[in-house]
Amino acid sequence: MAISNEDLYKLVSKLPEEAKQSAYDFLEFLTARYTRPDWDEIENRQSW
Asked: Which Pfam families does the record associate with it (predicted)?
């Protein structure tokens, strides 16, 4: 399923400020990998 950058922007803009860094970290993680990570893998990642 493809979404537009605008759709992604709208979702992020709805987040409370304290959640935006987590959303960014998750997206950064996804761009560095080609497999779908699980939440434990995301939590345990040491460097961004």
From this structure: DUF2281
The 10s digit of each residue's pLDDT in 6-35 is 998 999 999 999 999 999 888 888 888 667
Torsion-angle region of 35 (φ positive above 0: left; ψ -120 to 50: alpha; else: beta): beta
* Exposure string over 19-46, b if 16+ CB within 10 A, otherwise e: eeeeeeeeeeeeeeeeeeeeeeeeeeee
Q: What is the pLDDT of residue 33?
A: 65
Q: What is the DSSP secondary structure assignment for residue 46, as one 8-state letter?
A: -
Spatial distance between the Cα atoms of 14 and 35, rounded to a whole number of angstroms: 27
